[in-house]
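call fold(seq) -> tokens
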Amino acid sequence: MEYIEIKDYIIIGHYCGEIPDEKNPTIEYREVENCIANIGEDIRFYSDLSAGIKKPLKALIAEKLITIPEGKKLNEAGTDFVDMTDAEKVAAGFIQLKPDEKIEGEHIVKKTEKEKHDDRLISKEAYNAFIDTQRQAAYKQESDPLGMQVLRGELDKAEWLAKIAE
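ret:
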């Protein structure tokens, strides 16, 4: 004969032999055969305690025996927890977007200067200063090399001026 001792749904002992005559009233004694459940486990996690068959994770959550950790969700198969995407965390209220942030796909990204201007997060002056900086960088990268080619006689001046106008 084989038996287990259970207290508050937790297996606290696994024994071979007869159940003792003097029983502790706070402990449940249950006869089992070839039980492969482990000491320290909650018996409510098992659909078949003797066979050691555990309930699916979805069932344990439905029975409120397990809670989904914050920022996690069940995978598609319902067998494990996986991280939520940033978009899902925002939708669930775990993350709050800052005024200069937005959701793009599954990720949080910074808004563009145009979006910040459109949302009145930056002034027209600040936006124009940003545009001027971008324009200067483009001049340096695109038209300045052409100007050097004009000076060396490798390029017609009209092409360089067209690039500047662009």
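The two ends are 91 Å apart (CA to CA).
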